[in-house]
Recover the amino acids of this structure.
């Protein structure tokens, strides 16, 4: 299953980007062994619409386009499910085992995600009840993807 992340905003050069790339590199190396392949990070600028609702709708169209037809869509949303790393790995593994070809994980802009996009998601995922900067959310997400790969592989990286 090919995995991609689509996000509003850009991850600038610096330590956050380096950490993100470190986990992407690990994911690229370990993922194919368990049938999970890193595809890409797609970044989009924040919408220039003035109204927050219009911004979310504009951004949702860009994010949804990355998912493509038939892909599993995971939205990062504070109102989503809070899963353990094991549960997240099990969901990804089940999708892989069901021959799902693509999985797109999307991170909205500062105004959040469009309600329609949230409702169309196969999984609304919360990283917790706290609010994180989008750069840190990306790092947490890609680390959890790598952790899911290690869980599915039976690797000792994850200790429960």
């Amino acid at each position: 299953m090919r995995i991609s992340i689509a996000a509003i905003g850009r991850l600038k050069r610096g330590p956050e980007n380096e950490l993100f790339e470190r986990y992407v590199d690990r994911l690229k190396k370990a993922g194919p062994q368990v049938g999970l392949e890193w595809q890409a990070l797609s970044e989009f600028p924040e919408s220039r619409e003035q109204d927050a609702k219009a911004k979310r709708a504009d951004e949702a169209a860009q994010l949804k386009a990355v998912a493509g037809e038939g892909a599993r869509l995971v939205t990062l949303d504070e109102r989503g499910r809070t899963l353990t790393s094991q549960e997240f790995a099990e969901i990804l593994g089940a999708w892989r085992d069901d021959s799902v070809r693509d999985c797109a994980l999307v991170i909205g802009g500062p105004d959040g995600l469009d309600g329609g996009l949230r409702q169309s998601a196969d999984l609304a995922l919360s990283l917790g009840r706290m609010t994180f900067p989008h750069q840190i959310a990306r790092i947490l997400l890609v680390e959890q993807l790598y952790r899911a790969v290690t869980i599915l592989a039976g690797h000792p990286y994850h200790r429960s």
